Amino acid sequence: MRWIRAHDMAGRVLALPNQTPGILPRFGLTRDQVDRSAWAIDAGGRYYEGAAAVNRVLAELGGFWHALASAYRLPPIRWIEDRVYAWIARNRRFLSALLGTTPACQEPGVRCE
After folding, report:
1. How many CA atoms lie within 13 A of 41 on its CB side?
2. Residue 111 maps to a domain
3. Within 13 Å, how many C-alpha atoms sit on residue 84's CB side?
4. SS3 at position 85
5. Residue 103 CB-density burial (10 A; 0-12 exposed, 13-18 middle, 19+ buried)
6. Which of 3, 28, 42, 43 is the most buried (most CB within 10 A)?
7. What is the pLDDT of residues 58-105, one digit of tens each?
8. Dihedral of CA 45/62/72/38: which sign?
C-alpha cells in the first residue's frame, strides 16, 4: 500500500488494508479471499486477484508501470507472474520480517479490525 501511494501521484488508486472496518461486506469479499491474495476492483466493477490485481494497479498508474503491466497479457509472462505471486503470498510473513516492513494496520492513523 505504501508503494502504491508513493507512486500514485494522480491519486487514481485507493489502497486500503483488508482489515479496514466494513470493507469485506462492502466489496463482497471473504476473509479467506483477502488473506490469500491482493485484490483490485476497477471503476467498472471488475475484480482482479493476485498477480492480475497487481498488474491492474500498475496499469492504472500509467507510464512505465502501464507498459510493464501490459506484459501480463502474454500467456508465458502471466503464467510466471501468477506462480511468483503465489509463492510471495504464501511466504509474505517471512518476507516481511526479512525485509523489515511494517504491516499497514500497525501504521499510525490506520483503522483496522
Report:
1. 12
2. no
3. 10
4. helix
5. middle
6. 42
7. 999 999 999 999 999 999 999 999 999 999 999 888 877 777 776 666
8. negative
43 DSSP assignment:
T
| Number of domains comprising the chain | 1
Residue 76's pLDDT is what? 98
What pLDDT, in 10s, does the model give residues 10-53?
Answer: 888 988 888 889 999 999 999 999 989 999 999 999 999 999 99
112 falls within a domain: no
Query: 82 is written with which cell numbers?
Result: 501468477
Element (H, E) at 55: helix 51-61
Q: How far apart are the C-alpha atoms of 98 and 95, rounded to whole Å?
A: 5
Domain of residue 90, residue span: 2-106
Cell of 9: 501521484
The cell numbers describing 43, all together, are 471503476
pLDDT value of position 107: 66
